[in-house]
Amino acid sequence: MRCGLLIIDDYDVLLTVNEGHEETMRMSELASKVLLSNSGMTRRVARLVERGLLKRKQSTEDGRVFEVTLTKKGRDALETTWEFYQNRLQEVFIRFVSDKESEQLGKIFQRILDQIGGDEYRGLLKMGATDAPRRRL
Question: For the whole model, what pTM was predicted?
């Protein structure tokens, strides 16, 4: 973490948990979605728990399963990091691409995801999906 910002790998983990029901997700599901091995995810989550960004607990339904939940500190870190990344994307990339080109790129990337991604990646463009964290009320 530099200047209070998350590195992109940690951002990806927290963003994925943020998208889970009640900002909670099973460790195995998280590892699958972030494309990390279970042991790699265990190490990453341990570091995020140590920093107070996630809570890890044993499932009440199945004692063999562990779940992680985003903390308020984790949500705040997500939002702060997103603001920074969004501004940097604008400065470095977006300002050089017209609206029409942006739309074309979106269609191209969606077509690629439709072919190589899982079902959860289909139709992201139509849904208006972004890497911005979901805001909680």
Answer: 0.80
Q: Return d(Cα 72, Cα 134) in angstroms, integer.
A: 13
Angle at 45 between CA 24 and CA 63, to 5 degrees: 60
Distance CA 50, CA 48 (A): 5
* Six token digits for residue 41: 């995810």
Which H or E run includes 56? strand 54-58
Given a contact cutoff of 8 angstroms between Cβ atoms, the answer to whether 65 and 28 are in contact is yes
pLDDT per residue as tens digits for the range 5-16: 999 999 999 999
Helix, strand or coil, per DSSP, at residue 3 = coil
Q: How far apart are the first and last CA of the chain?
A: 27
Q: Strands 24-26, 66-70: parallel, antiparallel or unpaired by DSSP?
A: antiparallel
pLDDT in tens, 84-101: 999 998 899 889 999 999
Q: Give whole-number Cα distances, 11 to 6, 53, 59, 99, in Å.
A: 6, 11, 24, 27
Residue 44 CA to residue 65 CA, distance in Å, equals: 17
For residue 110, which amino acid is it? Q
